[in-house]
Amino acid sequence: MWCFKPERIYPEAAFHLPYNWGKMATSLTRTFGSLRIVARRGLKNAELALNIQHPGPLFLPVRTKKRHFIPPAVGMKGKKEENPEAKARAAGIVFRQQYLERPINIACSAGVFDPYIPPEGDARLSTLSKEGLRQRTEQIRQSAASQLAIRKVKEYDSQFSTKTFAEQAQEIFIEAHNALTQFNKEKLHSLVTERCYPEMTRGNRYKTIRWRFVESLEPPRVVHARCPDMVTKGNLYGQVTVRMHSKQTLAIYDRFGRLMLGSEEQPKDVLEYLVIERHLVNPYSRWRLHGKIVPSWAPPKDPVIKVTVYFGPLIIFLFRLLDG
Amino acid sequence: MFLSAVLGPLATLNPNKLQVLGGASQQLSCLHTSISLDDKHWEKNNRKVYPPQLPEEPRRPAEVYHSRRQIKYSKDKMWYLAKMIKGMSIDEAIAQLEFNDKKGAKVMREVLLEAQEMAVKNHNVEYKSNLYVAESFSGKGQYLKRIRYHGRGMFGIMDKVYCHYFVKLVEGVPPKPEERTGFDQAKEYVQGLKNRTIIHSL
Hints:
The complex is a heterodimer.
Chain A: E1 7-8, H1 24-31, H2 38-49, H3 84-91, H4 130-137, H5 144-156, H6 162-182, H7 185-191, H8 196-201, E2 208-226, E3 237-253, E4 259-279, E5 288-293
Antiparallel strand pairs in A: 2-3, 3-4, 4-5
Helix pairs in contact in A: 6-7
Chain B: H1 2-7, E1 11-13, E2 18-20, H2 25-28, H3 41-44, E3 63-71, H4 75-85, H5 90-98, H6 103-122, E4 131-140, E5 144-149, E6 154-160, E7 163-171, H7 182-194
Antiparallel strand pairs in B: 1-2, 3-7, 4-7, 5-6
């Protein structure tokens, strides 16, 4: 099994200084003949007479015994490790302090507070019928808490108005999804909160997404607003819910370019309730997409293009159907 | 260091690619950029993303790369098993390894099962049995060295062997190896003889 010749163990021999410089000539000839320095011998008597002793060459190549590789594990038998930590510190290796903490993100809140409960049958009824009219009249003017929240938001942001905000929200939504298709991380972070980002991007790293906003069927409307405060009393976050009814196309391709979900040509009507959030106390904060509200009466989603369904990390965030 | 000295401020060095601005590209395209020892190249193949296919194109089969490093087994002994399962469908390969007596068979079976699960979960493979082993091979791992004592003060250096095992699973039916009979081979030989000609002849 061990096919090379075993070698004898010898102590290491190194170069050494000639210990007797007076007998330099003889020692030199004895160790190697080729490096005889003739001139030296001639000068030798004169040097001795004048008490000058020139030091010889510092390193004389002496024929050594062949050194063999001894693996470092030789002396390891039965040795208890004294203190690897002390050794490392002595060697100068500095370990960074380990922080056993969980980072908290304060730029966004953890969820949707007091979520908006969309009325049953929203956008299924035409606005001309009695039911539809009743729904229409249930606007945000009814909800006092929303009014209060909007007033609080207007304290911090004087240019806030529900009419313009809805358009702004739609723009944010479209830009965020375009950034998602290109997977532009920085832009996506500026348009979407930290809580929403993993929801949007989980499992998508090696997938290609093609999304297109075709048109908006109804103008977007602000339906709900809340201003929760986190941790301390004054730390306000504004969460506004916007209702959007639009046409979109979505196609998701997996790692190999095969279609997984949706289709690129067929647009679908989508009714969505987006939650847009802003950290009001921070003057540099922006309105960002925080999440979506999925009503319980939502129609089922399109099936995945697969016979067997595995409940893995597919994107479920984007695609919502209405009326098929 | 050497490269930056040679190329000067024109080159930007990426870990694996060398981008050179300016006209020096022809001379330097033949430079060898070495891969660092820590990179696990086989697993990086799993990160390759293909562009979406057009509807006319044939469906691209899914490929899953998996490996296990530093298995306490000899690479030469592992090779026999790897050669055995090459080209088999995954169910067949798992079954064969289950009833094989070698130590490496157990490890290999675990690797295959892991790869199958990964394929279904992460790589959008629809049927877990619809996979076959396209590539499977073993490689040398990092050995530990120990002393083996002989008589008369002699010693030998003993290697504690480790190996890596790599496998690539592809979706689909395993390709049938073409069977060449002796007659076919003889026919080809005769055809080769017939094709001989003298060039630049009259």
